[in-house]
Amino acid sequence: METFGAADPHQRDGVGGGTSVTSKAAFVSPSADADVDLDYLFAQGAAGEGIVEWGSNCGNCATAVALWGVQEFGLDCGGPTTTVRMRNVNTGSAVIAEVDTSGGVPSISVPGVHGMGTGG
Questions:
Q1: Measured between alpha carbons, how far is 55 from 91 in angstroms, rounded to an integer?
Q2: How remote is the C-alpha of 33 from its chain's centroid?
Q3: What does the DSSP 8-state code read for residue 45?
Q4: Which of 8, 73, 95, 104 could form a disulfide with 86 if both were Cys (CB 3.0 to 4.6 A apart)?
Q5: Model-level pTM greater than 0.85?
Q6: Rounded to the nearest 5°, which phi and psi values hold at 71?
Q7: How far are the Cα atoms of 11, 45, 75, 84, 87 from residue 66, in angstroms, in the given order?
Q8: Which of 13, 77, 17 is nearest to 45 (CA)?
Q9: Quick count: other Cβ atoms within 10 Å of Cβ 91?
C-alpha cells in the first residue's frame, strides 16, 4: 500500500491514497477467453489502514480499462464505436463498454458525468 501512500490521509505527492476514490488500481490483460476482450483485477486500498480489498468492482475504473484497452491493445474495430467486453476477475462479472472511436482519439462517457473521458 505504500505505493498509494495509504498511511497518509492527506496524500498529495503520490498516485493517491488519501481517500477511497484515489486508492484504486486495475491490473489489465488480454483475455484468454474468446468471448472476452480484457480481464482485469480490481484493487481498492483502504486509506490509512494499509490493507487491500479484492472483492469488488468500480464502474469508473471499468470505463478507464475499456478506454485504455482500445489504446494499448488495438481493440478499435474501425467503426464509430468499439464494444469492449471485459471480465472483472475479482467477481467474475461481465462488463461491456462502448468506446467512441469515431474522432481519431478514443473517448468514453460515464452516465451522470458531464463531458467525455479521452485517451491520448
A1: 6
A2: 19
A3: E
A4: 95
A5: no
A6: -70, -50
A7: 27, 21, 9, 6, 11
A8: 17
A9: 13
